[in-house]
Amino acid sequence: MDWNDSAEQAAFRAEVQRFVRERLPAYYRDTAVQRGFIEEAERDWQWDMMYGEGERQGAAQAWATALAERGWGAPHWPREYGGAGLSSMEQFILRWELASADAPVIGGGGTSLLGPTLLVHGTEQQKQQFLAPTLRGEILWAQGYSEPGAGSDLASLQTRAVRDGDEYVINGQKLWTSAGHKANWIFMLVRTDPNAPKHRGISFMLVDMRTPGVSVRPIESMSWRHATNETFYEDVRVPAAQVVGEPNRGWYVGMTLLDFERSSIASAVAQRQQLAQLLEHVLADRSPHRAPLLRAELAERRVEVEVLFNLSLRIASMQAAGMIPNYEASMGKVFSTELTQRVARTGTKVFGLYANLWSTSEPLSPMHAQCTQTYVDRTVGTVTGGSSEIQRNIIATRGLGLPRG
Do 262 and 385 touch, CB atoms closer than 8 A? Predict the structure, then answer.
């Protein structure tokens, strides 16, 4: 593993930094807005594109356009489909610098999950219909995988799709549909053969969320944020041409997640920035909590942030060497999500009773209540995206060679 940029990598990093200085819209240069320190914290780039008005929507569109010019909206996609075809290390550097500048991430699951899936399994018509509009921000995607009875055991999903001529008719429910209230399309797994073994008989479909019969209900987090939803499908008719891959082989299609950015570098940057703000408050005597025990805890968090950076760099270095991270990515995921919780918990200790202030606009809320909001909101971080228990099983069996059971 090399901790230093090569000459080419250093030049690319400088290019990204220059690009951000010149092209990031003024609206997003206000870090208070970009980091969600506003009352409606769910307002991110996707929200701005879908519901924003005036400067907000203009900034979202301008940023998407600027990234699309270089293919940086989907740096891992091939150039012929609007991507940049960047190497693994260039992707790592790009995401590092964008995170450092608090530049919004565009595309969401449309670029990181659906795009690579269509590139492998989609028809040419599907690629032409969906890839370019996704990069331009015209199509905004949600992911319809989990259901009330199918979370970690996703193959138990029961949402049905029945063939009717040139269409499928969908009935069922999806749960934890992140960005469902910001999206106009959803890619989803549905059961098309109820008599097949549970990992078979599943199809991968693209559904316009404006189709009659689709409804979205919000789920608010413990920090009163609306980030996810439950979605319902009642006699929703979908053209059969919107099935990706072979019918009843959707499980294998859905597992094609070729975004190799698994390094958690954006989280590492975010933790470093949040910790730097905490230290700034302490050193400026804005908080009286400077007991030796708290200083030791802050020092421990600082060390852990650097550990996360090294875990991230290790994964990026493996990818650059043509290796595929396996348990290493699980190590990064566990450490990153648990560190996010620890940093937020330390922050609430730093601010003492002021950490009881929840409102991001309350003048007396330290750091716009970021630590308090994160402390509560990221409780789910060790569950979503593969729970820490599942990740530790992967580390144990694939990393340490321990037996199952």
Answer: no
The answer as to CATH 1.10.540 being correct for domain 7-106 is yes
Q: What is the pLDDT of residues 11-40, one digit of tens each?
A: 999 999 999 999 999 888 875 444 444 444
Q: Quick one: 141-254 is in which CATH superfamily?
A: Butyryl-CoA Dehydrogenase, subunit A, domain 2 (2.40.110.10)
Instruction: Report the topology of domain 265-399.
Output: Butyryl-CoA Dehydrogenase, subunit A; domain 3 (1.20.140)
Per domain, the residue ranges of the chain are: 7-106, 141-254, 265-399
Phi and psi torsions of 129, nearest 5°: -75, -35
Q: What is the CA radius of gyration of the chain?
A: 22
| Interaxial angle between packed helices 292-320 and 327-351, expressed in degrees from 0 to 180 and rounded to the nearest 10 | 160
Rounded to whole angstroms, how far apart are CA atoms 83 and 396?
36
The length of the chain in residues reads 405
Query: CA 82, CA 78: separation in Å to the nearest integer?
Result: 7
Percentages (nearest 5) of helix, strand, coil residues in the chain: 50, 15, 35
Confidence bin at 291 (pLDDT 50/70/90)? low
Burial readout 354-390 (b: 16 or more C-beta within 10 A, e: otherwise): bbebeebeeeebbbbbbbbbbbbbbebbbeeebbbee
Exactly one of 261, 297, 304, 306 is catalytic; name it.
261
Nearest to 168 by CA among 231, 232, 242: 242
Nearby residues of 72 by Cβ (< 8 Å), 6 or more positions away: 19, 84, 94
Residue 40 is a catalytic residue: no
Backbone angles phi, psi at 231, to 5 degrees: -120, 145
- Regarding pTM above 0.90, the answer is no
